Amino acid sequence: MDAPRALAFDVFGTVVDWRSGIIAELQSFGARHGLQRDWASFADAWRAGYAPAMDRVRRGELAWTRIDDLHRDILVGLLEGVPVGEAEIDDLNRAWHRLPPWPDAVTGLHRLKRRFVITTLSNGNVSLLTHMAKNAGLPWDCVISAELFGHYKPDPEAYLGCARLLDLAPEELMLVATHPGDLRAARACGLRTGYVARPLEHGPGRPLPAVTDGEFELVAQDFIDLARQLGA
């Protein structure tokens, strides 16, 4: 196949292991404050609040709000009644800046970077994605965020805006993601699509989302496999 000119990556779940990272941060937080909780369930609830919070912005109930601030509002609700200060809440909220990459991510991105422009295309705000890249050693050529467009994915403005910023036609840009809904929305905007399976994103024993054979242009087991398929 003809190769795309650039690759845009979803980040949470696709590049970084948000669940294990957040659970570890919560366990450390709990140990410091003498708190006993089911931290895995807490992490899942924190993440589960993300889509409804974005929908409140889409409906106009909230003004445009950075993901950092949405994450913090969700966290405050989950910590209701826990006697911790604002600075401690702020530090815990920055756990999303410190997430670990999947084991193949850094090596695979370096391989892909040799041939392609590689960028984020995430709902995470620019500062979050920048700090994450610095912490995890993610070698992006640039950091593109939904924040730049005032629209979260899967709004078309995010996908088309990314292509525009890179001076590319939509068909010259491939979105790489582990979330089929994200890829379907990108495809509807004319982007090419690469699906990467992340079976542990939501923890062991959870089924992968349903993907139809041939639905996406590339299907890869990890970033090393993606690089191989793209000739990088």
Overview of this structure, please?
With about 230 residues, this protein is α/β, with parallel strands linked by helices. It is built from ten helices and six strands; from the N terminus they run βααααααβαβαβαββα. The protein has a six-stranded parallel beta sheet, with helices on both faces. The mean pLDDT is about 95.
Keywords:
232 residues, alpha/beta, DNA polymerase, domain 1, 2 domains, six-stranded parallel sheet, 6 strands, globular
Show unreliable segments.
none
What's the CATH superfamily of the largest domain, by name?
A: HAD superfamily/HAD-like
Proportion of residues in β-strands: 5-15%
Number of domains: 2
Mean of residue pLDDT? 96
Q: Structural class, from secondary structure content?
A: alpha/beta
Radius of gyration: 18 Å
From the N-terminal CA to the C-terminal CA, the straight-line distance is 14 Å
For the record, what CATH class of the largest domain applies?
Alpha Beta
Q: What string, H for helix and E for strand, traces the elements in order? A: EHHHHHHEHEHEHEEH
Task: Write down how many β-strands occur, each being a DSSP E stretch of 2 or more residues.
Answer: 6
What's the architecture of the largest domain in CATH terms? 3-Layer(aba) Sandwich
Shape assignment: globular
Summarize it.
By secondary structure, the chain is of the alpha/beta class. It is 44% helix and 12% strand. The protein has 2 domains: 6-17 and 99-229, HAD superfamily/HAD-like (Rossmann fold, 3-Layer(aba) Sandwich); 18-97, DNA polymerase, domain 1 (Orthogonal Bundle), CATH 1.10.150.
